[in-house]
Amino acid sequence: MTMVAALQMASGPQVQANLMEAARLIKEAAGRGAKLMVLPETFAMMGVHETDRVTIAEPYGSGPIQSFISQQAKKYGVWIVGGTIPIQSGNPARPFAASILYDAEGKAAARYDKIHLFDVTLSESEEIYTESDTTTPGHTPVIVDTPFGKLGMSVCYDLRFPELYRRLSEKGAQILLIPSAFTDVTGKAHWEPLLRARAIENLCYVIAPGQGGYHVNGRTTYGHSMIVDYWGRVRGERDKGAGVVLAELDLEALEQTRKTFPVLSHRCPSENRR
């Protein structure tokens, strides 16, 4: 059994203030026994303008945001996922949205660049998002072995693309990480059903921290950070505001369920699909 944590925030435009809040939540989660914790998407900055994230982009392997997560992981001897961090790409105006996993020694153990970018218009609220204007997409699914099991990494809008999670589960993922910043409109409609679906169809645990509250840029995020088990049961949830969601993961029970309910082995091979 491993205690894990989803850390919910309501980040603003000031990086230092956000990092202080993240440090508070990390300390709380570590004090309550969490060994793996996941911060939400854009935890270090929810800017007034989308272009603000470009100004804090860091080269991979150095910079204040990466150093902060590394130091916190080492300080508490825990594994931490920095939800998303703007990491420089070949285009100065469009950094990657990188989710970086740090081990208990503070070393970067894995990096996933968000593949699916949020370019949508929400007719209900008349909100328009063009994430691709300020973000370079990634292309490669990432799975990583850890002391807690095999982690499949993803971010927010990826949640709507089940084929990504099929690829992760085919590679052996047991725990799906989904740091997010769902809008209030889409969150109310789809957040919980999508999380539970990804857990059920892949017989995986899901750790899904979100942004949850009102932001200086006028945006309201849905919150409802959750940890969902492989049977689709919500093991922990927080509705709004900063806080910690904790749950214990039992991989022995997960693997036993996969043996007695072998839906994953019943999938048709990709080459035989029509």
UniProtKB/TrEMBL annotation:
Keywords, sorted A to Z: Hydrolase
Residues annotated as domain CN hydrolase: 1-251
Entry keyword Hydrolase: yes
Molecular function GO labels: hydrolase activity
Pfam families: CN_hydrolase
Segments forming a coiled coil: none
Record bears the keyword Iron-sulfur: no
Database matches in InterPro entries: C-N_Hydrolase, C-N_Hydrolase_sf, Nit1/2_C-N_Hydrolase, UPF0012_CS
Gene3D superfamilies per UniProt: Carbon-nitrogen hydrolase
Similarity section: Belongs to the carbon-nitrogen hydrolase superfamily. NIT1/NIT2 family.
The name this protein goes by in its record: Carbon-nitrogen hydrolase family protein
Organism: Candidatus Thiothrix phosphatis
